[in-house]
Amino acid sequence: MKVLANDGISKSGILALEKNGFEVITTKVAQEQVANFVNDNDVTVVLVRSATKVRQDIIDACPGLKIIGRGGVGMDNIDVDYAKSKGIHVINTPASSSESVAELVFAHLFSGVRFLHDSNRNMPLEGDTNFDGLKKAYANGTELRGKTLGIVGIGRIGQATAKMALGLGMKVIAADSFIPQVDVKVDFFDGQSITTTIVSQSLESLFKEADFITLHVPAQNGYIISEKELAMMKNGVGIVNCARGGVIDEVALVKALDSGKVLFAGLDVFENEPNPEMAILMNHKISLTPHIGAATGEAQDRIGTELASQIIKLLK
């Protein structure tokens, strides 16, 4: 049986599949050619990340398809219910990338509170001629320790983010309409651990209380943060989105950044991905990454191995 890993798969995943008799194809097929490629090559399994979409047209056109797999958490690029109605298994890897995404959240937070995203732009340009001026411009940093982190969505990635925040000495609050409370266990290198219970509260109270806000939710029909929600927040709040584009009103965000209401934003995902708006890309108060939350070697190894395990279990 053949597996098309159209957005790539780790070597560990390939080896696990090949060991069990699968042929793994890692050729990148253009979106409009996926259905033809699947049929022409008798592909049984299609694996994607966030780039390739598997919609109803591909599902209808590929009667030999048995599994659609998503290397990651969100499934919004797959017509999941329709695929299942056609007897196709739909799998993903919800636990594999949590730590990597959480670490990227803190990369943005640390960058924002110490202005690294802006100083890294300006030091190469002015570091040799305006060193003292830049030193003054970036001298008003903020510590994360002792501050309140508001986590919107306290699922696996939200919990991984909470663990890191607790380790830094932050207060953690959360809002999640599906998880009323959760016990978060922070493990230390020597086998010791602490456990704390986080009780979900209203979004409105979180927006009012948090010094920093991070989003960990699936794709939404509307904005979670727009002009109304921004007005509720503390002056000088920091906002990070490593979840999905379209959950923050980017026009309202830029306005809030320009006014000083929001101190900084960290964005890994965008409304108009993969063509983010120039107003976002050029704003010196935004720390930017190109949708790389799960893009670590460790996470990709876990994702590949977990996908392989599920495929083998379903088809062997």
Automatic annotation (TrEMBL):
Example GO molecular function: oxidoreductase activity, acting on the CH-OH group of donors, NAD or NADP as acceptor
Domain of life: Bacteria
D-isomer specific 2-hydroxyacid dehydrogenase NAD-binding domain segment(s): 107-293
Pfam families: 2-Hacid_dh, 2-Hacid_dh_C
Keywords carried by this UniProt record: NAD, Oxidoreductase
Limits of the D-isomer specific 2-hydroxyacid dehydrogenase catalytic domain: 8-315
InterPro entries: D-2-hydroxyacid_DH, D-isomer_2_OHA_DH_cat_dom, D-isomer_DH_NAD-bd, NAD(P)-bd_dom_sf
Family affiliation: Belongs to the D-isomer specific 2-hydroxyacid dehydrogenase family.
Name of the protein in its database record: D-3-phosphoglycerate dehydrogenase
Protein species of origin: Flavobacterium segetis
